[in-house]
Description:
By secondary structure, the chain is an alpha/beta fold. The chain folds into two domains: 2-125 and 274-336, Medium-chain alcohol dehydrogenases, catalytic domain (Quinone Oxidoreductase, Chain A, domain 1), CATH 3.90.180; 128-268, Rossmann fold, CATH 3.40.50. It contains ten helices and 16 strands. The protein has helices at residues 44-50, 119-123, 126-139, 161-173, 185-194, 206-212, 227-237, 273-276, 284-297, 314-325, and strands at 2-9, 19-22, 32-42, 53-62, 67-74, 86-89, 102-106, 110-112, 152-156, 177-181, 198-200, 218-223, 238-246, 265-268, 305-308, 332-336. The strands form three sheets. Strands 3, 5, 6, 7, 8, 15 and 16 form a seven-stranded mixed β-sheet that branches. A six-stranded parallel β-sheet has the order 11-10-9-12-13-14, with helices on both faces. Strand 9 (152-156), helix 4 and strand 10 form a beta-alpha-beta unit. Helix 3 packs across helix 4. The protein is globular and about 60 Å long. It starts with a strand and ends with a strand.
Amino acid sequence: MKAIGLHRYLPIDHPEALLDVELPHPQASGRDLLVKVEAISVNPVDYKVRSPKDAVEKTPRVLGWDAAGTVAAVGPDVTLFKVGDPVFYAGSITRPGANSEYHLVDERIVGRKPASLDFAHAAALPLTAITAWEALFDRLGVSPQGEDEGRSVLIIGGAGGVGSIGIQLAKQLGKLKVIATASRPASAKWATELGADHIVDHFGDMPAQLKQLGIEQVDYVLIFNDTDTHFPAAAAVVKPQGGICTIVENNKPVEIELLKAKSAAFHWEFMFTRSMFATPDMIEQHKLLTEVARLVDAGTLRTTVGENLGPINADNVRRAHRMLEEGRAIGKLVLSGF
Length: 338
């Protein structure tokens, strides 16, 4: 089967950073689905895993953790899906990625594709929807039934992939006042169209900008961009007994002592935790994606595709990596068809 893989971890401009390769056709066992991949999207985790290091892979390593496609075969223990079902999912970081014609994935982290979306628009959603949902509702404890209506959230990185769905979840389900950050007119427009009530620039003085809006503090902060840079501002603006959740790894110690006087909570969100550790509640991601699909089909949530880069091949995937590394993407970058 066709796939995009790597042998060495190289800068994205190196011609061998990502290669078109041929790999054996995988076979489904256990609770695995074998999915014929129709579309993928690319996330920062892809280029972070690919980032330069000394390791060399004897067989091509396939990246990619967002896909939509059709179930081509099922393992003997599968109960949730059947051959022919259209699905969408983000997969597991501990297994080969979805940048391939056929892909194995545990049914417990898969959802049925929204009927109202084509494969490309569906592929934009899984990883970011799971991340934003878990960060907002599981980690920070916001009610998805709107019981915290009127409270406020600052979403740092509002026009990125996670921010794009996070704004919608916070506004449509959480009924929160949403302040999103964006640094360019195009990204500010995007975040506003998704439901943000206010926009501030994360390259500026965020506490001062919030004060100009008449907002002294917020109940929650979601850091979807650069924890090292933005944590001090998040700690300054979060309310006493509020909460901060970040999805971005830090390169220096996080100054959580800044939260002590406020008794404010600090959370990490990593959407691969359940699949990585095969947690007893792993099936919650199947339920989550099922609910996301229902909300999309009901018109409550919208897809977050920013640009379709064309067919799934090494050249186009390299282009997507480059755009994400340079911070030029708005919404999600998708590719469809081999």
